[in-house]
Design brief:
- Helix content is 0%, strand content 56%.
- Strands 12, 13, 14, 15 and 16 form a five-stranded antiparallel beta sheet that branches.
- The two termini are 32 Å apart.
Length: 191
C-alpha cells in the first residue's frame, strides 16, 4: 500500500506494508522546486505506483517500482493544469484526468515509458473540468466532468477510444451544477 502526501515543495510518496504498517520506502519528487502538489495516486497489477499532480504550471506524473520505490519514469505536460484522477488499464497504461485552459483534459501515457500516447481537451476552454475516469469492459476510458454550455454548468460523460483518443460517444445527463467547483465520480456496471 502506498500513499502520497503534500509538502510545500515536493510530492512525497510513502509505501507501507499491508501486514504490519511498517514503512517500506519514501520518495520525494520536486520537478519545479516550487509549489509542487500531488493530488492523485494509483497502482497497477504489478504493484507499481503512479503519482500525479501540479508542478508549478504543469502536470507531473511519476511511476515508481512498487517493491523498492525506484523511479521508473516521470512525465510532464505543460500548461496551467490540475489533476483530479488517475486510472490504469489492464495493459499498464495510465490515464490522467483534470483540466487545463483548453477544457477538461484526458491524457494517456504508455505504462512502460511514460511517453504521451494522446491528450484531449473537451468542453469550454477555462471552464470545463474532468473529475473521474473509469476503464470499461472493452478497454475504453470514460470520463465524467463539468462543461459550461448555454450559460450553465452541466455534467458530461465522454467515452474515448483507448487506442486513438477519439470520441466514442458523448452523453449529457440531465443534471446541472451551480458552479464549476462541483465534483463527480464514475463507475462501470455490467451491461
Amino acid at each position: 500500500e502506498a500513499q502520497s502526501t503534500v509538502n510545500s515543495y515536493a510530492f512525497a510518496t510513502v509505501s507501507y506494508s499491508v501486514v504490519d504498517g511498517a514503512q517500506n520506502w519514501v520518495r520525494l519528487y520536486s520537478g519545479s522546486g516550487f509549489s509542487d502538489r500531488a493530488s492523485c495516486i494509483a497502482s497497477d497489477f504489478n504493484g507499481d505506483i503512479y503519482v500525479s499532480g501540479k508542478s508549478r504550471f504543469s502536470i507531473a506524473t511519476i511511476k515508481y517500482r512498487g517493491s523498492d520505490g525506484v523511479e521508473l519514469w516521470s512525465a510532464v505536460e505543460g500548461g496551467d493544469t490540475e489533476v483530479h484522477d488517475l486510472v490504469v488499464d489492464l495493459a499498464g497504461d495510465l490515464y490522467v484526468v483534470g483540466y487545463s485552459a483548453e477544457g477538461f483534459l484526458t491524457s494517456k501515457h504508455q505504462g512502460g515509458s511514460g511517453a504521451l500516447s494522446w491528450s484531449r481537451a473537451f468542453g469550454t476552454p477555462g471552464e470545463s473540468r474532468g473529475y473521474s475516469a473509469v476503464i470499461d469492459s472493452i478497454g475504453n476510458v470514460s470520463v465524467i466532468g463539468l462543461d459550461y454550455l448555454e450559460g450553465a454548468y452541466s455534467y458530461v460523460v465522454v467515452s474515448y477510444n483507448a487506442g486513438t483518443g477519439g470520441d466514442n460517444w458523448v452523453s449529457r445527463p440531465n443534471v446541472e451544477s451551480e458552479s464549476n467547483r462541483s465534483s463527480a465520480s464514475i463507475k462501470v456496471a455490467p451491461d
